[in-house]
Each structure stands twice: as structure tokens, then as C-alpha cells.
Amino acid sequence: PAAIVFFWLLWERRLRAAFRWSLAPAALFFLILIAPLLWLLERHNPGFLRQFVLEEHLARFTGTRKEGLHPEPFYFFAVDLIPLLFPWGLFLFRAGRTAVVHRVFASDPLSRFLWVWFLVVFLFFSASTGKLLSYIVPALAPLALLIGRWGLLEPPGPSRVDRGFWWFGVVGVIGFAVGILAMWSIGYFQWLPGDLGRPRLSSGLAFLAPAIALGWAL
């Protein structure tokens, strides 16, 4: 969070706002809150701080952890972003184009903040040697907000390319809804015995979400 605020204020040319008098008592209050908890954990679990700070953070990041490292390439999170946001992630292409064409990051401070939030988390954990999908979860919220604002809420323009990206996302949402319904039906009616377990009838309530998505898309 500190890095996100720092780089955003740097972009906004308001870096002095990060060095107000209130920073010192806020930092002290944080230490007063966290120090007793860490002390209690270390007291009841000797070696906790070494394991938690050195092994689970520093050693995993640098790749010096002996076991449970989960090594992955730098691009590991990049290829997982759209699947993690599916089906709304299909609007990412339109959101990116809209941001460039309308110079969103030059005119909208909130979008700049969300972009910095996403990039700091994404690049930091991409640089880590050890990677798990859960690490990138904090980067999904700002990216989802950017996709929602510039990929979905922005009305389709007269450009054929823009409308193409729009329908690419819409068809993806419809396909997602239909696909879930098809998989559930195959399992429930046992059209492919042995391949899919039979779900409970009550699980059909889960179709409310894709039904709403499908209705919105139509």
C-alpha cells in the first residue's frame, strides 16, 4: 500500500502530501497495534518470526527457500489475468483501447490511482521467484474497476474496432452463461454417464448470476 500511494502521488506531482506531520503518529500507532501481536505469536510459537518473515517472504521472493517455493516464470501472472477475471476479462481489450484513445490516464486521477495500484502489485509479485495465484488477488480489484468503467460502462462509439471489442466481450459473457448451463445440464441429466457427477437440483440457484449477466448482455 505504501508503494502504491508513493508512486501515485509521484505521478500526480503531489509527493509532498506523503510527508505530512500525521505520518509519524500514524506509523507509531501501527507499531503499537502490531508489536504485541507479533510478540505473543513468537512467545507461543518460538521461531515464528524467522519462519514468517525470512522463509515465507524473503526466501520465497529471492528463490532461496528449500521447499514449497512454487517457482514460476516472470509472465506467470500475465497469462492468468483474463481467466481470473473471466468472462468480464474479455472487456479488457476494449478498456485498454478506450484508455489510449480517450487519454484516460491524462484526465482521470482515479483511473491513474487504479492503474498504479494494479501495476505495483502485479510487477512486485511477478518479480518474485515463488508464485501462487493467490498473490495476485489484490491486483484484481483495481483492474476490474478499470474494466468496468472503460470496458463496459463507456457506450460503444462509431468506430468499427470499438464495436468489435464490445461485441467480443458481450459474446464472451453469453458464451460463459450458456456454457455453465450446458455443463450443469449434462451432469444433472447424466447425458455423459461417468464423466460428470450429478449436481443437486438446488444448485440450479447458482444460475441466477449467469442469468443476470445474460440478461444484461442481451
Straight-line N-to-C gap: 39 Å
Q: Identify the overall geometry.
A: globular
Strand content: under 5%
Q: Total number of helical segments?
A: 10
Mean pLDDT: 89
How would you characterize the largest beta sheet?
A: none
Contiguous uncertain segments of 5+ residues: none
Q: What is the N-to-C succession of helices and strands?
A: HHHHHHHHHH
Radius of gyration over alpha carbons? Answer: 23 Å
Q: Which structural class best describes the helix and strand composition?
A: mainly alpha
The helical percent reads 55-70%
For the secondary structure, the number of strands is: 0
Oligomer: single chain
Describe the protein.
With 218 residues, this protein is mostly helical. The protein contains 10 helices and no strands. The longest helix is centred in the last third of the chain and has 29 residues. It is globular.
Key words describing this protein structure:
single chain, 218 residues, mainly alpha, 65% helix, 0% strand, globular
List the helices and strands and how they pair.
Blueprint: H1 2-12, H2 23-44, H3 48-62, H4 81-84, H5 92-101, H6 104-107, H7 109-127, H8 137-153, H9 160-188, H10 208-217
Helix pairs in contact: 1-7, 5-8, 5-9, 7-8, 9-10
A few lines on this structure:
The chain has helices spanning 2-12, 23-44, 48-62, 81-84, 92-101, 104-107, 109-127, 137-153, 160-188, 208-217.
